Amino acid sequence: MTSKNKINEDLANERRKCNFNIEEVTYILDGGKEKTLQRKKIEDVALNGGASVDDIPEEYLSARERYENAIRKSCIYTNIVKNEVLEITGIENYGSPVLRRTGDAFFKDISPFMLHLGMFVPSIIGQCTAEQQATWLPRALDMKIIGAYAQTELGHGTFIRGLETTATYDPETEEFVLHSPTITSYKWWAGGLGRTANHCTVVAQLYTQGKCHGTHLFIVQIRDLETHMPLPGVKVGEIGPRMGFNTADNGFLGFNNYRIPRMNMMMKNAQVLKDGTYVKAARHGKLTYGTMVFVRVTLVGEASFNLAKAVTIAVRYSAVRRQSELRPGSIEPQILDYPTQQHKLFICIATAHAFQLTASWLWNTFTAVQAEMKKGNVDTLPELHALSSCLKALSTSDATAYIEQCRFACGGHGYMLSSNLPFLYAFVVATRTYEGDYTVLLLQTARFLVKAWEQAESGKVVTPTVAYLNRHFTTNGKMIWDNSPEGIIRVFQSVAAGKISLCVRSIRNRITSGMDHEDAWLMTTVQLVNAAEAHCRSVILHTYWNEIVRLTKHSSDNVKTVLNQLVMLYLTYWALERTGDLLRYSTISENDIDLLQRQYEELLVKIRPNAVGLVDAFDIRDEILQSTLGSYDGRVYERLMEEVQKNPLNKEPVDPSFHKYLKPLMKSKI
Ligand SMILES: CC/C=C\C/C=C\C/C=C\C/C=C\CC/C=C/C(=O)SCCNC(=O)CCNC(=O)[C@H](O)C(C)(C)COP(=O)(O)OP(=O)(O)OC[C@H]1O[C@@H](n2cnc3c(N)ncnc32)[C@H](O)[C@@H]1OP(=O)(O)O
Ligand SMILES: Cc1cc2nc3c(=O)[nH]c(=O)nc-3n(C[C@H](O)[C@H](O)[C@H](O)COP(=O)(O)OP(=O)(O)OC[C@H]3O[C@@H](n4cnc5c(N)ncnc54)[C@H](O)[C@@H]3O)c2cc1C
């Protein structure tokens, strides 16, 4: 064995200690053995040519070089996908999470094609008629046209109804005239728009026959397909450096009375006829927001995957890193042996599991709602919107905090870009804002919760995710504390019910004392966000526990044990985080809290020997992790030194700036 492929001895020891079948856990997380085998096959095809095709790491490049390099790699990857991967998986898997995952081997930051696959293509699928799909989809999937999703404007992101771009129908020519009437109406932020896209989905206020019908979606060509020049009437460019997303060429876009054919309005849910007659969406007023719902659903899985990457890096590093001494003269312990380090990291492993299983469950819910909507039934859409909103908000917010915790857990080396942790953080922190800001989305869930509360109050049976509200009206007093998983979940549901109840009371009291409904709601929004967070927490706890019970029914004993330890750690962790709520809404005592704390610390000890095995079970290839600290072999220090060789600053022993500036300064007299 050469030193290049030798496994670090501490990491090798950890793997010897692991007492469960790692593959079995991988299968559970992937959704079954077949899915794991399929993923591995795709990864082999996509990555075995050597994915990391950068001679100089992208962080050393200028903005121009970085963008060009990102385009170069996007094209390499797209060709691999088109020519090799889709042969195995079929075209319907374009844009699947596996391809998204494999793509990470090519980019530390982000591909300029991400929004094409992540939002432009889904908007064609979700918002176009079959005829329109036949026109656009094959060209988009084959990358003959490259798109972006241009909704947000300089002046408005959250409040979609406030968007200012107009699309006015002209029946004479059967065209829409797109126009940006103000500076604040300029599209701003759309990924891939600045330099890459030649088409985009544009969200604009639709005017026909002198009436505004609110925001609708349009497919708009913005650049010439041969020359890539912006078309006359289109002003487009890149918005400038930002925190992360620096290879995504986020762009701005304005229109000067720019004409597009009538059939470029995405007409699945509402139409404008040739004569300008507007035909309203028959089923639900918010179906044009469908692409956002789809992306919110996928973002829960994104949060899980990125957290899994971060904790894989941090746990492996913590097994390799030794620091301090427990007793004078004793061997320095692996930092993973410190309970405080375990406290930082094991919750991250458990959270990645919780989010992965919740993401799969949410995806199933999403596809079930889609199937119902195809039959014309939109009754389940409000619950899906409430669920996808709060799960997107919480998963991205928790993942952000825990990825940062993983970085802290790696000490100084966690700040190195080559650890990949800063990139992961910058990528994930944006997910908390884009596709609906954290607070705004929780307030959407709160609207649903208050309505569900009112239904339960009037004796109606409410939908499953809020069924605990029906129970709230049939039980008296505080929920009895019970330290079983089901007991903890019930208490969390009581906390949510209690908080929603307080919100309803506050709103009613405020209205009674003279406020109108809008002000009463506004004054209660701090509590409403809190209640929606509590509801979402209970949904995650419940889903995680239920899914583990279901998925480990036929598992080997040791797998059952370790996955149970993790889910118990998760439940106990959150119970301890929320002791204030538990004291308020349940009969938990000081003694019960002491017992919870002890239980938590014992779980850390039990999980410790399997920690490396657990992160190995995420099965994330080194090419995808792209981390000096987190590779499978644990050659942390060697990789850090190897990376230093790639630093262009080290190419010459003396920097030219020495002769230009430093030396004159040193020679100058005071
Ligand atoms: C290879 C694979 C590639 C990729 C995959 C991997 C990763 C992920 C993919 C891509 C992501 C990558 C990068 C993304 C980059 C970012 C993109 C963007 O950010 S795009 C822009 C997103 N913008 C937003 O999310 C804006 C947020 N704002 C809103 O959603 C709305 O304005 C808001 C809901 C806040 C308010 O809307 P409004 O019309 O004012 O409604 P109101 O509050 O009055 O509510 C009325 C009524 O409607 C209900 N409702 C609202 N929204 C929905 C909905 N979406 N569905 C159903 N119902 C909805 C609302 O609850 C209310 O109902 P009630 O009256 O209470 O009954
Ligand atoms: C990296 C990145 C990529 C993006 N990519 C795209 C893209 O491809 N396409 C696209 O169209 N957009 C994109 N966006 C835009 C993104 O969707 C918006 O920035 C996001 O929806 C937030 O909207 P905003 O910027 O208007 O924030 P604001 O709404 O201005 O939020 C500012 C603050 O006001 C608060 N706030 C706003 N409204 C309310 C309310 N009603 N109640 C309480 N508090 C409120 C928020 O909580 C927040 O604290 C991207 C953004 C980022 C950061």
Automatic annotation (TrEMBL):
Location (main, coarse): other
Chain ranges of the Acyl-coenzyme A oxidase N-terminal domain: 21-146
Lipid metabolism as UniProt keyword: yes
Domain Acyl-CoA oxidase C-alpha1: start-end pairs: 289-450
Localization per Swiss-Prot or TrEMBL: Peroxisome
This protein's UniProt keywords: FAD, Fatty acid metabolism, Flavoprotein, Lipid metabolism, Oxidoreductase, Peroxisome
Residues binding FAD: T152, G191
GO molecular function: acyl-CoA oxidase activity; FAD binding; fatty acid binding
Keyword Glycosyltransferase annotated: no
Family: Belongs to the acyl-CoA oxidase family.
Identification of the protein by name: Acyl-coenzyme A oxidase
Taxonomic path: Eukaryota, Metazoa, Ecdysozoa, Arthropoda, Hexapoda
